[in-house]
Amino acid sequence: MHRGVLPLPLKKHLRFFFLLFLMTSLIACQSDDASKADQQKQSQAFPSTYISAPSKAFVIEHATVLTGTGIEYRDASVLVENGLIKAVGNNFFIPADVERIDGSGKWVTPGIIDVHSHMGVYSSPGIESTQDGNEMTAPVTAEVWAEHSVWTQDPAMPLALAGGVTTFQVLPGSGNLIGGRGVTLKNVNAKNVQAMKFPDAPHSLKMACGENPKRVYGNKGRAPSTRMGNVAGYRMAWIKAEEYLAKWDKYTESLGSKKELDKPARDLQLDTLAEVLRGNILVHNHCYRAEEMMVMIDIAKEFGYKISAFHHAIEAYKIADVLAKENICSAVWADWWGFKHEAFDHVRENAAMVHNAKACAIIHSDSAIGIQHLNQETAKAMAAGNKNGLSIEVKDAIAWITSNAAKAIGVGDKTGSLKENMMADIVIWSHNPLSVYAKAEKVFIDGVLTYDRYDSEFQPVSDFDLGIIDPEGVRL
Among residues 261, 203, 212, which one has the least CA distance to residue 233? Predict the structure, then answer.
């Protein structure tokens, strides 16, 4: 036998095994494709149709720039091209043909992000017919999606824009153990909610612990009526979700085999919970008390999911070290407390203490009024920390309503900071944004001028809004 030449029978055997390998691989690919198609059908329902308006290149010059990442530039510039940030800082080339905006004496920040809004689902005016945020018909309603209640003409949205808010997460209410899916929206005028949906932003799952669910269902004479009933309710829901996920996984594994299983029946509630277990939906947990947050962390570990943020988190300061270790954000108020028993042990230094422990601190609104001045709420929280020696600077605190918020809702790689190739969601402020005198003068979303305080053409309003324009074009 010559070297390098195989005998004929061996060649036939190798050809047979090669063909067998190809067939097996093809079946596996078909199985994977079928599985992916099933998952895409579930995850891509009601897709985002948001398309940013065309934008022109421009540069903001000679401003104080806060990047949202702990960096402050003086007498700096921000260059925007094709709706994205091209460059930030003091020394970079500026093309001659771009529009120049004089930022002298102004401050520039990323667009503000509110991680806890009910705009659109608890719309203004606050009457019974606009209360669409709480499906309080069962303790677990993971099947409902907040976006299906959003009223895009809510007058609160343009008012939030005037406060510098470019992105906000709309959550279901907190009456249930598991209240449903939340959605992240761009703060733009649109005919329907899909045209506002932040592209590729993950859905969230709203969960709630403490007084709300036990009060709602205890008053109906059903479980849960205690905190231990709350915990049992979460665990029973996740056990069902694990079983559902296992059925789908076994079905997927069987595709193309001789023992291919019947396709499981879909369950909208369990679809959502299974996507959480797959890591595709982020958990946002309404929770006030420290020990309850610790319990929720234990439950998350028991069932293998991750908590993205605790919301309201009145007692986050007590477990700031744990939150830092677990990489869980705390979305808190500056000084809203005492309205029920679990909200009593608040301190105004809450956010500052979380930040000082190197955990992720966020200031949120939960209010159609509060969302209009989140910059001032942040200022109050920072001032409380500094009064007690925590030494927090503006360049760091601004992250509480920009980059930290973006991280919590899963869009930190796209917005929330002024860095190259990030979305050009930008606010130009009249003063230091954490000053009581600061006003958002211009707001850009994807590089498009969306709001201008001194030009009524760029002051979007709802058909249901009332307002007066003075002779200088300022909305009163």
Answer: 212
Q: Same domain, yes or no, for 96 and 240? A: no
C-alpha 133/C-alpha 153 separation (Å) is: 16
Kindly report the number of other CB atoms within 10 A of residue 385's CB atom: 24
Contacts of 23 (CB under 8 A, 6+ apart): none
Count of C-beta atoms within a 10 Å radius of residue 182:
27
Per residue in 216-270, pLDDT tens? Answer: 999 999 999 999 999 999 999 999 999 999 999 999 999 999 999 999 999 999 9
Check if the beta carbon of residue 224 is closer than 8 Å to that of residue 233: yes
DSSP 122: B
Q: Are residues 215 and 334 in the same domain?
A: yes
**Please, what is the end-to-end C-alpha distance for the chain in angstroms?**
96
How many other CB atoms are found less than 10 A from the CB of residue 29? 11
CA distance 234 to 140: 8
Q: Which tens digits make up the pLDDT trace of 55-81?
A: 999 999 999 999 999 999 999 999 999
Distance CA 449, CA 440 (A): 12
> Is the same domain home to 207 and 221?
yes
Give domain status of residue 41, yes or no. no
Strands 58-66 and 99-102, bridge-based pairing = parallel
Q: Distances from the Cα of 369 to the Cαs of 15, 175, 347, in angstroms?
A: 72, 21, 22
As a 3-state breakdown, the chain gives helix, strand, coil percent values, each rounded to 5, of 35, 20, 45
**DSSP letter, residue 339:** S
382 and 408 assigned to the same domain: yes
Q: The domain containing residue 256 runs over which residues?
A: 112-415
Question: Could you tell me which of 232, 224, 328 has the C-alpha nearest to residue 285?
Answer: 328
pTM of the model: 0.91
287 and 353 both lie in a single domain: yes
| One domain for residues 465 and 343 | no
Tell me: do 63 and 157 sit in the same domain. no
Q: What is the DSSP letter of 422?
A: S
Q: How far is 470 from 28, CA to CA, in rounded Å?
A: 68
Listed in sequence order, the residues at least 6 apart from 435 whose beta carbon sits closer than 8 Å to its beta carbon are: 379
CATH label of the domain that carries residue 353: 3.20.20.140
